[in-house]
């Protein structure tokens, strides 16, 4: 399975980022929380691919639903 998020102490001090970028996943969360759409996020951060954002949101949703089921 391809990683959706990576942490590397050499990249932003280990902040979780999208693989192959220096874009923190928290930035996507902040955009969504502010009511911005994915297209705007992708336009502002062109190193992140749409597939990466979709995979992150899918896994985050799965994790949330799994935690609520327990």
Quick overview:
The chain is an all-alpha fold. It has helices at residues 25-33, 38-44, 50-69.
Please characterize this protein's 3D structure.
- The chain has helices at 25-33, 38-44, 50-69.
- With 70 residues, it is mainly alpha-helical.
- It is built from 3 helices and no strands.
- The longest helix has 20 residues, at 50-69.
- It has one domain: Orthogonal Bundle (Arc Repressor Mutant, subunit A), CATH 1.10.10.
- It is globular.
- The two termini are 25 Å apart.
Q: What would you call the shape? A: globular
| CATH fold-level assignment | Arc Repressor Mutant, subunit A
- Could you state the order of secondary-structure elements as H and E? HHH
Low-confidence stretches: none
Helix content: 40-55%
| CATH architectural arrangement | Orthogonal Bundle
- Indicate the proportion of strand residues: under 5%
The tally of beta strands, per DSSP, is 0
In round numbers, the mean pLDDT is 94
Number of helices in the DSSP assignment: 3
CATH class: Mainly Alpha
Assembly state here? single chain
Gyration radius from CA atoms, angstroms: 13 Å
Largest sheet: none
Compute the separation of the termini in Å. Answer: 25 Å
Integer count of domains: 1
Which structural class fits the helix and strand makeup?
mainly alpha
CATH level-4 homologous superfamily: Winged helix-like DNA-binding domain superfamily/Winged helix DNA-binding domain
């Amino acid at each position: 399975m391809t990683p959706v998020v990576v942490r590397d102490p050499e990249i932003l001090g280990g902040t979780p980022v999208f693989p192959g970028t220096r874009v923190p996943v928290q930035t996507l969360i902040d955009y969504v929380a502010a009511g911005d759409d994915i297209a705007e996020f992708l336009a502002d951060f062109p190193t992140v691919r749409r597939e990466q954002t979709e995979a992150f949101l899918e896994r985050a949703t799965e994790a949330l639903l799994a935690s609520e089921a327990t």
